[in-house]
Amino acid sequence: MKKIPGILLILSATFISFLTIKSSEKTYIEELQLVTYEINPKNQKLQFFWKNKRDKNYKNFQNLKSELQNEGKRLVFAMNGGMYFKDLSPQGLYIESGIIKSDIDTVQNGYGNFYLQPNGVFYLTKNREPVICTTKSYRYNQKIEYATQSGPMLVIDGKIHPKFTIGSPNVHIRNGVGILPNGNLLFAMSKEKVNFYDFANYFKKKGCKKALYLDGFVSRTYLPSVNWKQLDGNFGVIIAEIK
After folding, report:
1. How many other CB atoms are found less than 10 A from the CB of residue 126?
2. Which of 9, 24, 150, 198 has CA 20 to 30 A from 161's CA?
3. Single pTM value for the model
4. 202-239, pLDDT tens digit by residue?
5. What are the φ/ψ torsions at residue 30 (nearest 5 degrees)?
Protein backbone atom coordinates (compact mmCIF):
# COMPACT_ATOMS: atom_id res chain seq x y z
CA MET A 1 0.00 0.00 0.00
CA LYS A 2 2.86 2.40 0.73
CA LYS A 3 4.17 1.96 -2.83
CA ILE A 4 0.97 3.16 -4.52
CA PRO A 5 1.63 6.93 -4.04
CA GLY A 6 5.07 6.43 -5.63
CA ILE A 7 3.54 4.63 -8.61
CA LEU A 8 0.91 7.33 -8.95
CA LEU A 9 3.64 9.97 -8.81
CA ILE A 10 5.57 8.27 -11.61
CA LEU A 11 2.44 7.89 -13.73
CA SER A 12 1.51 11.50 -13.08
CA ALA A 13 4.98 12.73 -14.03
CA THR A 14 4.92 10.63 -17.20
CA PHE A 15 1.52 12.03 -18.16
CA ILE A 16 2.67 15.60 -17.51
CA SER A 17 5.80 14.95 -19.58
CA PHE A 18 3.65 13.60 -22.42
CA LEU A 19 1.45 16.70 -22.33
CA THR A 20 4.54 18.93 -22.33
CA ILE A 21 5.96 17.21 -25.40
CA LYS A 22 2.65 17.46 -27.23
CA SER A 23 2.20 21.07 -26.19
CA SER A 24 5.74 21.96 -27.28
CA GLU A 25 5.25 20.31 -30.66
CA LYS A 26 1.99 22.18 -31.22
CA THR A 27 3.54 25.49 -30.22
CA TYR A 28 6.55 24.94 -32.48
CA ILE A 29 4.38 24.12 -35.49
CA GLU A 30 2.20 27.17 -34.87
CA GLU A 31 5.23 29.42 -34.46
CA LEU A 32 7.24 28.00 -37.36
CA GLN A 33 8.38 31.05 -39.30
CA LEU A 34 7.15 30.65 -42.88
CA VAL A 35 6.27 32.68 -45.92
CA THR A 36 3.05 31.09 -47.19
CA TYR A 37 0.75 31.72 -50.10
CA GLU A 38 -2.53 30.03 -51.01
CA ILE A 39 -3.60 30.12 -54.61
CA ASN A 40 -6.69 28.99 -56.48
CA PRO A 41 -5.31 27.80 -59.84
CA LYS A 42 -8.80 27.97 -61.35
CA ASN A 43 -9.05 31.71 -60.80
CA GLN A 44 -5.43 32.85 -60.59
CA LYS A 45 -2.92 32.65 -63.41
CA LEU A 46 -0.15 30.32 -62.31
CA GLN A 47 2.65 29.57 -64.78
CA PHE A 48 6.05 27.88 -64.84
CA PHE A 49 9.07 29.68 -66.31
CA TRP A 50 12.60 28.62 -67.18
CA LYS A 51 13.91 30.47 -70.26
CA ASN A 52 12.79 33.67 -71.94
CA LYS A 53 11.99 34.23 -75.62
CA ARG A 54 15.72 34.65 -76.34
CA ASP A 55 16.38 31.18 -74.88
CA LYS A 56 18.13 32.68 -71.86
CA ASN A 57 17.54 31.47 -68.32
CA TYR A 58 15.53 33.86 -66.19
CA LYS A 59 17.73 32.85 -63.23
CA ASN A 60 15.82 34.95 -60.69
CA PHE A 61 12.62 36.83 -60.02
CA GLN A 62 14.04 40.25 -60.87
CA ASN A 63 14.73 39.19 -64.45
CA LEU A 64 11.29 37.61 -64.77
CA LYS A 65 9.63 40.66 -63.20
CA SER A 66 11.37 43.02 -65.62
CA GLU A 67 10.41 41.01 -68.69
CA LEU A 68 6.81 40.76 -67.56
CA GLN A 69 6.67 44.51 -67.02
CA ASN A 70 7.86 45.03 -70.60
CA GLU A 71 4.86 42.95 -71.68
CA GLY A 72 2.46 44.97 -69.53
CA LYS A 73 2.14 42.21 -66.94
CA ARG A 74 2.69 42.16 -63.19
CA LEU A 75 4.45 39.56 -61.04
CA VAL A 76 2.22 38.77 -58.05
CA PHE A 77 4.04 35.80 -56.55
CA ALA A 78 7.09 33.70 -57.39
CA MET A 79 8.97 30.76 -55.91
CA ASN A 80 11.80 28.62 -57.25
CA GLY A 81 10.22 25.45 -58.55
CA GLY A 82 12.56 22.51 -58.23
CA MET A 83 16.15 21.36 -58.33
CA TYR A 84 18.54 22.01 -61.17
CA PHE A 85 21.99 21.24 -62.57
CA LYS A 86 25.02 23.57 -62.74
CA ASP A 87 23.85 24.92 -66.10
CA LEU A 88 20.49 25.76 -64.42
CA SER A 89 18.64 23.12 -66.42
CA PRO A 90 15.85 21.32 -64.54
CA GLN A 91 16.68 18.11 -62.73
CA GLY A 92 14.06 15.62 -63.81
CA LEU A 93 10.77 16.26 -65.54
CA TYR A 94 9.90 19.74 -66.72
CA ILE A 95 6.91 20.61 -68.90
CA GLU A 96 6.09 24.14 -69.99
CA SER A 97 3.02 25.09 -72.05
CA GLY A 98 2.46 21.41 -72.80
CA ILE A 99 6.00 20.86 -74.14
CA ILE A 100 8.34 18.38 -72.42
CA LYS A 101 11.59 20.30 -72.02
CA SER A 102 13.30 17.85 -69.66
CA ASP A 103 12.57 14.13 -69.33
CA ILE A 104 11.45 12.45 -66.14
CA ASP A 105 14.17 10.95 -63.93
CA THR A 106 13.19 7.48 -62.66
CA VAL A 107 16.52 6.60 -61.01
CA GLN A 108 15.81 5.04 -57.62
CA ASN A 109 19.18 5.13 -55.86
CA GLY A 110 20.82 8.44 -56.74
CA TYR A 111 22.51 10.83 -54.32
CA GLY A 112 20.86 13.80 -52.62
CA ASN A 113 17.41 14.97 -51.56
CA PHE A 114 16.00 14.60 -55.07
CA TYR A 115 16.45 10.81 -54.83
CA LEU A 116 15.14 10.36 -51.29
CA GLN A 117 12.40 7.95 -52.33
CA PRO A 118 9.64 8.45 -52.94
CA ASN A 119 10.20 11.67 -54.83
CA GLY A 120 7.44 13.22 -56.90
CA VAL A 121 5.92 15.43 -59.56
CA PHE A 122 3.79 18.56 -59.26
CA TYR A 123 1.75 19.43 -62.33
CA LEU A 124 -1.13 21.54 -63.60
CA THR A 125 -3.50 20.39 -66.32
CA LYS A 126 -4.86 22.61 -69.07
CA ASN A 127 -8.09 22.67 -67.06
CA ARG A 128 -6.07 24.16 -64.17
CA GLU A 129 -6.34 21.05 -62.01
CA PRO A 130 -3.35 20.71 -59.65
CA VAL A 131 -1.83 17.28 -59.03
CA ILE A 132 0.99 16.09 -56.78
CA CYS A 133 1.98 12.46 -57.11
CA THR A 134 4.94 10.17 -56.58
CA THR A 135 7.25 9.72 -59.55
CA LYS A 136 6.36 6.03 -59.58
CA SER A 137 2.65 6.76 -60.00
CA TYR A 138 3.09 9.61 -62.51
CA ARG A 139 1.69 9.00 -65.99
CA TYR A 140 2.13 11.49 -68.79
CA ASN A 141 -0.96 12.70 -70.64
CA GLN A 142 -1.54 15.47 -73.16
CA LYS A 143 -3.69 17.43 -70.71
CA ILE A 144 -0.64 18.43 -68.66
CA GLU A 145 0.30 22.08 -69.21
CA TYR A 146 3.05 22.55 -66.60
CA ALA A 147 5.06 20.05 -64.56
CA THR A 148 8.14 19.94 -62.37
CA GLN A 149 9.79 16.98 -60.67
CA SER A 150 11.51 17.17 -57.31
CA GLY A 151 12.07 15.24 -54.16
CA PRO A 152 11.45 14.05 -51.65
CA MET A 153 7.70 13.96 -51.25
CA LEU A 154 6.77 15.66 -47.97
CA VAL A 155 3.31 14.21 -47.44
CA ILE A 156 1.98 11.05 -49.10
CA ASP A 157 -1.70 10.17 -48.73
CA GLY A 158 -1.92 12.24 -45.57
CA LYS A 159 1.21 10.75 -43.98
CA ILE A 160 4.63 12.31 -43.47
CA HIS A 161 7.41 10.80 -45.61
CA PRO A 162 8.47 7.61 -43.74
CA LYS A 163 12.18 8.47 -43.85
CA PHE A 164 11.81 11.78 -41.99
CA THR A 165 12.88 11.80 -38.33
CA ILE A 166 11.43 13.85 -35.46
CA GLY A 167 14.11 16.13 -34.06
CA SER A 168 16.50 15.59 -36.96
CA PRO A 169 19.51 17.98 -36.84
CA ASN A 170 19.48 18.16 -40.67
CA VAL A 171 18.12 21.69 -40.96
CA HIS A 172 18.02 24.09 -43.90
CA ILE A 173 15.85 26.77 -45.43
CA ARG A 174 13.23 24.77 -47.35
CA ASN A 175 10.31 25.39 -49.70
CA GLY A 176 7.51 23.22 -50.97
CA VAL A 177 3.95 22.95 -52.26
CA GLY A 178 0.88 21.05 -51.12
CA ILE A 179 -2.75 20.66 -52.13
CA LEU A 180 -5.28 21.83 -49.54
CA PRO A 181 -8.61 20.10 -48.86
CA ASN A 182 -10.42 22.85 -50.81
CA GLY A 183 -8.31 22.10 -53.90
CA ASN A 184 -6.18 25.22 -53.61
CA LEU A 185 -2.40 25.14 -53.66
CA LEU A 186 -0.37 26.01 -50.57
CA PHE A 187 3.16 27.26 -51.18
CA ALA A 188 5.48 27.65 -48.19
CA MET A 189 9.09 28.61 -47.56
CA SER A 190 10.75 28.61 -44.17
CA LYS A 191 12.27 31.88 -42.99
CA GLU A 192 14.58 29.95 -40.71
CA LYS A 193 16.31 26.58 -40.91
CA VAL A 194 13.99 23.64 -40.35
CA ASN A 195 14.23 19.86 -40.65
CA PHE A 196 12.21 17.78 -43.09
CA TYR A 197 9.85 16.36 -40.47
CA ASP A 198 8.74 19.71 -39.07
CA PHE A 199 8.40 21.22 -42.53
CA ALA A 200 6.31 18.28 -43.76
CA ASN A 201 4.25 18.38 -40.58
CA TYR A 202 3.21 21.95 -41.41
CA PHE A 203 1.57 20.78 -44.64
CA LYS A 204 -0.01 17.80 -42.89
CA LYS A 205 -1.48 20.03 -40.16
CA LYS A 206 -2.99 22.21 -42.89
CA GLY A 207 -4.82 19.16 -44.25
CA CYS A 208 -2.65 18.49 -47.31
CA LYS A 209 -2.87 14.86 -48.37
CA LYS A 210 -0.02 15.40 -50.83
CA ALA A 211 2.91 17.80 -50.60
CA LEU A 212 6.24 18.01 -52.43
CA TYR A 213 9.59 19.48 -51.43
CA LEU A 214 10.93 21.89 -54.03
CA ASP A 215 14.42 22.88 -52.84
CA GLY A 216 16.61 23.94 -49.92
CA PHE A 217 19.05 26.68 -49.00
CA VAL A 218 18.83 28.33 -52.46
CA SER A 219 15.09 28.89 -51.99
CA ARG A 220 13.60 32.30 -52.69
CA THR A 221 10.08 33.74 -52.60
CA TYR A 222 8.65 36.94 -54.01
CA LEU A 223 5.41 38.00 -52.32
CA PRO A 224 5.09 41.79 -52.15
CA SER A 225 1.61 41.57 -50.57
CA VAL A 226 3.37 40.64 -47.29
CA ASN A 227 6.45 42.75 -48.01
CA TRP A 228 8.63 39.73 -48.84
CA LYS A 229 10.69 40.51 -51.93
CA GLN A 230 13.61 38.19 -52.60
CA LEU A 231 14.55 39.19 -56.12
CA ASP A 232 18.07 37.76 -56.14
CA GLY A 233 19.17 34.20 -56.83
CA ASN A 234 20.49 32.02 -59.60
CA PHE A 235 18.29 28.97 -60.17
CA GLY A 236 16.29 27.04 -62.74
CA VAL A 237 12.50 26.69 -62.83
CA ILE A 238 10.30 29.47 -61.44
CA ILE A 239 6.66 29.02 -60.44
CA ALA A 240 4.81 32.33 -60.61
CA GLU A 241 1.42 34.01 -60.53
CA ILE A 242 1.07 36.87 -62.97
CA LYS A 243 -1.57 39.45 -63.83
Report:
1. 12
2. 24
3. 0.87
4. 999 999 999 999 999 899 999 999 999 999 999 999 99
5. -70, -30
